[in-house]
């Protein structure tokens, strides 16, 4: 699982276009999840009339999409466009790649960008805007949807130097700890509501002869990224969102004392030989444990707690019941300092256009709408920060739980900091620094090395 490809997604309105529209277009049923074809006459095109009224006759046009969302996760995206295609006459051509970041820039430089790209990092949007000037500012209909259905933070992530370019698409929540409800019940453990409760639970598991935590940060060329998520979650909880923002913007040094304190607090779990690494080995084994396999010892009670995002769900073996009373579920990583509220760390994709043809603007507006987000939610395996999505449309409990956190007006949401930092740091020295830290380097040494690596 490469980090940029893992950030897939994850909200309440009437008159939305539901899954029934897509399935009618595909000739499927709720159980079948699509497949087949049907005539345009089988689709209720009323919700799509506004696009042809606003953008004109779109019949016979084409929009190309380029994305990090690869098979099989791309299938529900493709299915979600069927109603738009049938009713507007636009052919949506979807392409994805594991080498998206590099190839997108090659295509831009070669004068052959896609019509729309789904960017997994706001930092990449800023780089492309500032280095190439190729992205097209979002049209008024897209901006109106974002103002209506998303929080100002999300709009900010799609804005560069005061110009709004990119609407949010899918989202995910990273502030989760996975556990086994059945194992908790059999051992008399309760889901912790505070950080102190969670640490006390960890101590209790040790006293009972168990190993509380299992973690893994090995991810090929992206090894180290899961530890950056852990650190970011704790910076939000100890230093607060304002310091978090100053940190990723480099308005304070990477080795600021408040960041040192947060990393050391993470070390109370990740570098505690009594707490880790259940099912795998000692502390250093975290660096070589594959991120996709890291939580699986929970099923054998070799560990009991695994901090991972909502998108960890597909890694559980087939047949695993993911539910509040099932084999596995997740709870919100508790806050630490009440002054900082209930921080939620997450990520997502953004739609940026490289052409202002009417069909491109129409499609970009559609995927920023509540209508599309509800359709996509009903197809399953996806979450959005779009607050126009009916929570009942989410097909699994983790997606619903994620959406509830994203919709919570009391929650303090922040985007993954490493995705907002320059690539040399956020996808470079921060990742490798976490490997050094896990395998024995001191907090001060690692953070100073990362600070020294920050580009001028």
Task: Write a concise synopsis of the structure shown.
This protein has helices at residues 3-6, 19-26, 49-55, 74-80, 82-88, 100-109, 122-132, 140-149, 152-157, 181-187, 195-207, 225-238, 241-248, 257-270, 358-366, 370-379, 397-407, 423-438, 443-453; strands spanning 62-67, 91-96, 116-119, 159-160, 163-164, 167-173, 176-179, 306-307, 329-332, 342-353, 411-415.
Explain what this protein looks like in three dimensions.
The chain is an alpha/beta fold. The protein folds into 2 domains: 3-173 and 345-407, 3-Layer(aba) Sandwich (D-Maltodextrin-Binding Protein, domain 2), CATH 3.40.190; 176-344 and 417-453, D-Maltodextrin-Binding Protein, domain 2. Helices cover 40% and strands 12% of the residues. It is built from 19 helices and 11 strands. Strand 4 and strand 5 (163-164) form a beta hairpin.
List the helices and strands and how they pair.
Elements: H1 3-6, H2 19-26, H3 49-55, E1 62-67, H4 74-80, H5 82-88, E2 91-96, H6 100-109, E3 116-119, H7 122-132, H8 140-149, H9 152-157, E4 159-160, E5 163-164, E6 167-173, E7 176-179, H10 181-187, H11 195-207, H12 225-238, H13 241-248, H14 257-270, E8 306-307, E9 329-332, E10 342-353, H15 358-366, H16 370-379, H17 397-407, E11 411-415, H18 423-438, H19 443-453
Helix pairs in contact: 2-16, 3-15, 4-16, 8-15, 12-14, 12-18, 18-19
């Amino acid at each position: 699982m490469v980090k940029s490809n893992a950030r897939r997604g994850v909200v309440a309105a009437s008159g939305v276009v539901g899954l029934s529209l897509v399935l009618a277009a595909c000739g499927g049923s709720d159980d079948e999840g699509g497949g087949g074809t049907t005539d345009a006459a089988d689709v209720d095109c009323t919700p799509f009339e506004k696009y042809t009224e606003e953008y004109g006759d779109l019949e016979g046009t084409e929009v190309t999409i380029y994305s990090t969302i690869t098979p099989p996760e791309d299938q529900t995206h493709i299915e979600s466009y069927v109603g738009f295609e049938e009713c507007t006459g636009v052919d949506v051509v979807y392409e994805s790649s594991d080498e998206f970041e590099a190839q997108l820039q090659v295509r831009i430089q070669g004068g052959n960008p896609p019509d729309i790209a789904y960017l997994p990092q706001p930092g990449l949007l800023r780089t492309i805007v500032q280095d190439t000037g190729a992205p097209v500012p979002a049209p008024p209909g897209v901006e109106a949807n974002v103002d209506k259905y998303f929080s100002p933070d999300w709009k900010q992530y799609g804005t560069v130097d005061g110009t709004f370019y990119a609407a949010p698409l899918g989202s995910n929540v990273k502030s989760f700890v996975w556990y086994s409800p059945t194992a908790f019940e059999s051992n008399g453990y309760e889901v912790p509501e505070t950080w102190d409760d969670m640490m006390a639970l960890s101590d209790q598991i040790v006293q009972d002869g168990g190993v509380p935590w299992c973690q893994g940060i090995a991810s090929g060329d992206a090894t180290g990224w899961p530890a950056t998520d852990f650190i970011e979650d704790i910076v939000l909880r100890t230093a607060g969102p304002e310091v978090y923002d100053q940190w990723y913007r480099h308005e304070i040094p990477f080795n600021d004392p408040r960041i040192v304190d947060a990393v050391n607090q993470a070390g109370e779990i990740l570098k505690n030989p009594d707490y880790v690494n259940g099912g795998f080995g000692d502390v250093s084994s975290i660096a070589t444990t594959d991120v996709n396999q890291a939580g699986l010892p929970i099923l054998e009670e070799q560990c009991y707690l695994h901090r991972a995002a909502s998108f960890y769900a597909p890694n559980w073996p087939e047949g695993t019941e993911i539910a509040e009373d099932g084999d596995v579920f997740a709870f919100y990583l508790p806050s630490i300092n009440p002054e900082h509220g209930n921080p939620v760390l997450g990520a997502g994709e953004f739609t940026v256009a490289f052409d202002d043809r009417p069909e491109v603007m129409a499609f970009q507006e559609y995927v920023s709408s509540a209508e599309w987000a509800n359709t996509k939610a009903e197809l399953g395996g996806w979450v959005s920060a779009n607050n126009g999505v009916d929570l009942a449309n989410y097909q699994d409990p983790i997606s619903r739980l994620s959406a509830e956190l994203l919709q919570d007006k009391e929650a303090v949401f922040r985007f993954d900091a490493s995705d907002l930092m320059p690539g040399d740091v956020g996808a470079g020295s921060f990742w490798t620094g976490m490997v050094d830290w896990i395998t024995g380097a001191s907090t001060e040494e690692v953070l100073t090395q990362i600070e020294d690596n920050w580009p001028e």
